[in-house]
Amino acid sequence: MSGGRGIPFHCPYCGDENLRPSEEASAGHGAAWECHACLRAFSLKMLGMIARPTGGLPVESEGSR
């Protein structure tokens, strides 16, 4: 990752594409965005990297049946 700003393509709440960068800084929470369709503001933040699967079939848990 280049360390630049993550750009969302859809609002995580309503799914609309009418997004604009927020004028207000979202201190410590990633880039702030505004959805002009549902009038919500949200931010993006990378939490980290996940481990690569080692192969084989995914393990099913008891609750997923």
Strand order of the largest sheet: 1-2-3
Element order: H for helix, E for strand: EEE
Shape: elongated
N/C terminus separation: 37 Å
Contiguous runs where pLDDT drops below 50 for at least 5 residues: none
| Average predicted local confidence, pLDDT | 80
Radius of gyration: 17 Å
Structural class by helix and strand composition:
mainly beta
* Strand segment count: 3
Main sheet specs: 3 strands, antiparallel
Q: Tell me roughly what share of residues is in helical segments.
A: under 10%
Number of helices: 0
Tell me what portion of residues adopts beta-strand conformation.
15-25%
Structure notes:
The protein has no helices and 3 strands. β2 (31-35) and β3 form a beta hairpin. The protein is mainly beta and 65 residues long. It is elongated, with a radius of gyration of 17 Å. It has a domain at 8-46. It has a 3-stranded antiparallel β-sheet with strand order 1-2-3, with no helix packed on it. The chain has strands spanning 19-21, 31-35, 40-44.
Brief descriptors of the model:
three-stranded antiparallel beta sheet, mainly beta, 65 residues, 20% strand, elongated, 0% helix
Topology:
Elements: E1 19-21, E2 31-35, E3 40-44
Give a quick rundown of the structure.
The chain has a domain at 8-46. It has a three-stranded antiparallel beta sheet with strand order 1-2-3, with no helix packed on it.
